[in-house]
Amino acid sequence: LHLKGDQSQPTGGGSINKYKWTAKQPGGSNQVFVPSSSFPNPTFTANAAGEYEFCLEVWDNSDQKSCVPACVTVLVLPEEAIHVELLWKTPADPDETDTGPAAGADMDLHFAHPLASSFDIDCDGKLDPWFSNPYDTFWFNPNPNWGSINPNVNDDPSLDLDDTDGAGPENLNLDEPEGKVGAPKFYHVGVHYWNDHGFGTSYATVNVYIMGVLALQLDKVEMDVLDMWYVGKINWPNSMSAKGITVDPFQICYQTGDPCDKANPGKRWVPKGDWCITPCYVNPAFTATQSGASASSCKKKP
Q1: Residues 6+ away with beta carbon under 8 Å from 67
Q2: Of 32, 101, 169, 282, which has fewest CB within 10 angstroms of its CB?
Q3: pLDDT exceeds 70 at position 75
Q4: At a CB cut-off of 8 Å and minimum separation 6, what does 294 contact?
């Protein structure tokens, strides 16, 4: 967004010598004005869906402040059939807006195809979809070729934002999901805490938009480094009923106990329970670990 304040004029004549921009952002968004909030015509990257309010206050050459801020509201909505956002808050990070290597916690959004399969690390008796090539979309595989070879069919997802240094957002878009009425498909959604860079516990929020409408929000889920949160599945078509077949639009993953506890194994995909989080999740087939945390840095849940 390009914001313009240089046409401001003092009512009593003179000139403007100071500008101050402020922004109210959707929950979890921490974007800043570029080059600064005191620049007359800054830019602002609205990279999370939702409502933004931008306000401008000015001071004239007599240091008189404008009586009322000039404000404008901007509504940012995704256009894709499926849009998934990941945002996070890390309490120990004093500045989640700074950038650079190891400047903040690095969490990753995962969006996997129904054919995705890898190791059963979460101990639920089924092959996990995460880090499956080419069927898991994440930072290492941001633009997979899943569907039709016809270039005019836009049925492949894209990870459009990958944030490695704090707060997010990361977002993923899919224009034309493969499922159809009577033969729905499901897509897996997950969050992996790739590296905390020493900042510790983070709180993840996942937003799912269907045809531009916020359809699901799971807010402030506590995660530690190398945790893998199996958020759930998005079914497509996103309808409760298709030709007499009942289809849940979303299947949120809940678990009781620890499925990996051999003495007293818990269960996943129960109606209610804890979030499906697997601690110390490291996939042995994924070799791009140079930027990830080591398994020795994670901690098992009590």
Answers
A1: none
A2: 101
A3: yes
A4: none
| pLDDT computed for residue 222 by the predictor | 97
Half-sphere exposure of 40 (CA within 13 A, CB side): 10
Structure tokens that stand for 222 in this block:
């506590």
pLDDT tens sequence across 138-153: 999 999 988 777 777 7
Three-state secondary-structure class, residue 295: helix
Which residue, 218, 224, 231, 234, is CA-closest to 202?
A: 224
Token pair for 83: 């849009």
> Contact, 284 vs 292, CB < 8 A?
no
Instruction: Tell whether the model's pLDDT for residue 221 goes beyond 70.
Output: yes
Rounded (to 5) percent helix, strand, coil in the chain: 0, 40, 60
**Cα–Cα–Cα angle for 53, 55, 58, rounded to 5 degrees:** 175
- d(C-alpha 255, C-alpha 276), whole Å: 6
pLDDT category at 249 given cuts 50, 70, 90 is: confident
Identify residue 112 by its one-letter amino acid code: A
Name residues whose C-beta falls within 8 Å of residue 152's C-beta, 6 or more positions apart in sequence: none
- Tokens linked to 152: 């005019």
Distance separating alpha carbons of residues 112 and 234, to the nearest angstrom: 10
Residue 72, beta-bridge partner list: 54
In the structure encoding, which two tokens stand for residue 142, read together? Answer: 């941001």
Q: Are 233 and 251 in contact (CB under 8 A)?
A: yes
Q: Which two tokens stand for residue 251?
A: 């299947």
Distance between alpha carbon 263 and the CA centroid of its chain, in Å? 35
